[in-house]
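Budget justification note: compute hours in this period were largely spent on complex prediction jobs such as the one shown. Inputs:
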Amino acid sequence: MALSRDAGTTGFFTDSTLCIGCKACEVACKEWNDVPHDGFLWSGLSYDNTLGLGHSSWRHVKFVEHDTTIGVGGNSPAQMTWQFSSDVCKHCEHAGCLEACPTGSIIRTEFGGVYIQPDICNGCGYCVVTCPFGVVDRRPDDGRAFKCTFCYDRQKEGEQPACAKACPTESILFGKLDELERLADARIAKLHSAGMQDAAIWNPKDTSVGGTHAFFLIRGDSRQYNLPVNPEVPTTLLKPAWTAAAATAGIMAVGALLAFGLGGKPRRREEASRETLQNR
Amino acid sequence: MTASSYHDLPLLKGPVWTWEVPVYFFTGGAAGAAAVLAAAAQLTRAGDDVVRDARWIAAAGAAVSGPLLVADLGRPDRFLYMLRVFKLQSPMSVGAWTVAVFGALTTTSVSADLVSRRTACPVKIVGDVSGILAGITGLVMATYTGVLLGATAIPVWKSHVRMLPVHFGASSLGSAVSLLELRGHRLPALNGLALGAAVFETLTGAAIEGRRDPESEPLRHGGTGRLTRLGGTLSGPVPLVLRLLGARKAAAASTLIGSLITRFAWVEAGKVSANDVGVAL
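Corresponding output:
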């Protein structure tokens, strides 16, 4: 599959080593995009009451609790350390939701983002199960699927997305994807030279997803951030699935023809058939 | 504190589909296989009665399938948007077009049959041609729902991506044959096909029971495990034994109930699978 990105492709580089967990991105996103609240819940899990991305949470600040073996910089050995990380739709290079959308509501924008056109979506729900990151969700009271729009409206006006604009520490950087990747490489080199050896970029370029336009700098095991190690775009499963379907169809067609062709003498069968119909 | 996922929260979102979708998998599959039987019976001249009844089952199944699919949409008034584009890479798009074409063909085949029997209008050929085309489309109807589930991010579905289209196809064939038998048809051909489907469903059940991977857990444990086992038993071994004993109608009834339960089991297993913390990571 050819990559969709070009020089004009924009991206998010979210650096969790700079995030302070203020959730300004969550608030700015909700305000700009008019996203409704999705319940008031005290989760008891760190200070995270959003818990995940969903139909009405397009940015989500994770409060990852690390054990003491990871922390550097004077943490007490008796206490865990926190890593904050603002999660968002990954805007995949090969997007499962976009491929699966039957109405053509989900499109690739001129900025390379994955966008659900709300005036087209009919709420079939197939994007929900074809997103390998659990991002897309159907809003029950509305019926349509929603996720991060990459602030398509703002980008068209030359503005950066609301979350990046609101981020007070530049943990969320918005810009041209190529430039952001260079910035990320420089940042990783700097962190490594400062002794933070567990810092790494999460961007699944070597998988069928083909990389993401929103990528992350995290510390430690990516699974603790609910960032899968080896995500797979479901489109790769089409070939084995349709091959199995075609084989089944072939066997069914030949089987039915053989059964009716060889399944007895037509006259006797007709009589039997008529007889039972009369007996009913 | 080291967890396998973020605070032991699941990564994926499960299907938002309600009862309409598994019921459609059953009605659409049975209708598709019935159209295949009608076309095969027509081509082999197995008798007008069985052709006509199979066509009616196909048309009736198509007629209830459309409304079920519309009802499941978040925005039912936008159901026509399904035909806005055709995307080969989207099983949902292929399916929507197949349902639409299949509905038109099956309706044409029974209408033409009705007209040709009650008037002098020579439209039998229209019924025969649309009957054959409906049979070809029916092959897709009976199997594509397995592709629809298999080509997703849901662990229990994608790990059975090769099995699902075959499994659903066999289930559909068993249902269509059973409906014809309950209508009173006793052709040996139907018994043969039903035996084949029951043998296959028995083997599928055994294959599911034999799997030990974490992705398959929802098919073997808990409520969805019981549902899978019940559906599989009623579609496989029970009708197999009943047929060998000669109790064809009882076998047919068991097959139909088993097929319906099987579709519910797979959709519900998908919901459990999506919440299976860590499997998708």
